[in-house]
Design a protein that fits this description.
elongated; alpha+beta; Rieske Iron-sulfur Protein
Length: 332
């Protein structure tokens, strides 16, 4: 190991850079720069990460329990789940809704502090209503969330529920028109702090763990034709009818499906959560993901049923000169 810094590490990367940088210069640069970035993470960021991670022990089993009953609730009614996910909007509905109660609650705190009780009380009512709407849409997302993202989403949801309960108590006290509003105002301030903490954790679920983020966000439509590697297949016509099969095209995994004389090709990684579409099934002209049941239209990758919100990359296929086939991502 090398160095006595807070994060000592193996010096091999530096020895390679100094003595044999001709081997893999790009990787050496990226790895070393990433290490430097890790060393430069602020103490505040480390502290917050540890505070969040401390809750994983209880959040994981609690999240698994909640996931079971929420999945049982939403899976039998895909249209309702799709609406709450935001497929009609082309954007996660929960993310759009959560900003409203946060802004309203900040308004509650400000109005209380400047002595506008009536306006503050109305804002509390609006905050509670929008928090409930955000909670319902978030529950639909949660029913198809797995792994660490589910654990952190459990902490996020728990903080929001605690804040909501405090606001309901505050609202009840306000309804009695007390002469001393110290307690309801104090509860509102505490609720705002808890909501802020919940929003911090919710941001990690999306920006750090990539939940509800398209797995193909950075794949642009290509203009270059890429050779399709057939593997053990002699020809695409040998594909079994309506049976997804994974092939390679450069660095991309492609799932191909033969329907009659037509060959359809989509990217093999589900846009929703990275599920293997080659393990999926063909249902009504769509390819259904085996993980969460999203259905993509075979002809163009359009999402027909959620929880995915984004279309699946589809590919054109043509015969290559000299035999075989080539693929190119179709324009969206």
């Amino acid at each position: 190991m090398y160095g006595r810094g807070p994060i000592p590490h193996n010096g091999l990367i530096h020895e390679l850079r100094e003595n044999r940088s001709d081997l893999i210069p790009e990787v050496l640069y990226v790895v070393d720069e990433l290490w430097i970035l890790v060393e430069e993470v602020s103490p505040m960021a480390r502290l917050l990460a540890r505070l969040v991670a401390m809750n994983d022990r209880w959040a994981q089993p609690f999240g698994d329990f909640n996931h079971r009953w929420l999945s049982a609730l939403f899976r039998p009614m895909p249209p309702v789940r799709d609406f709450l996910n935001g497929r009609w909007l082309g954007h996660p509905l929960h993310a759009a809704l959560t900003d409203i109660p946060i802004g309203l609650l900040l308004g509650v705190v400000v109005l209380d502090l400047v002595g506008q009780p009536t306006a503050a009380d109305i804002a509390v009512v609006a905050t509670v209503l929008f928090m409930l709407a955000a909670a319902v849409s978030g529950a639909a997302d949660y029913s198809d969330t797995d792994g660490t993202a589910r654990t952190r989403a459990t902490l996020h949801a728990t903080l929001m529920v605690v804040a909501l309960l405090l606001l309901l108590v505050s609202l009840g006290l306000r309804a009695g028109a007390p002469t001393d509003r110290t307690l309801p105002i104090g509860l509102g301030i505490v609720a705002f702090l808890i909501v802020s903490a919940g929003a911090f954790v919710g941001g990690d679920v999306v920006y750090l763990l990539g939940n509800m983020v398209s797995r193909h966000a950075f794949r642009g439509a290509g203009t270059k034709w890429i050779r399709l590697e057939l593997g053990s297949l002699a020809d695409l016509s040998d594909l079994a009818e309506a049976t997804p099969t994974k092939l390679k095209a450069g660095i991309n995994d492609i799932v191909v499906v033969r329907i009659g004389d037509t060959i359809h090709a989509l990217h093999a990684v589900c846009a929703h959560a990275g599920g293997p579409l080659d393990k999926g099934t063909v249902v009504g002209g769509c390819l259904q993901c085996p993980w969460h049941g999203t259905r993509f239209r075979l002809t163009d990758g359009h999402v027909v049923r959620g929880p995915a919100l984004y279309d699946q990359p589809s590919y054109e296929i043509r015969s290559a000169e000299g035999g075989g086939y080539e693929v190119r991502r179709a324009a969206s």
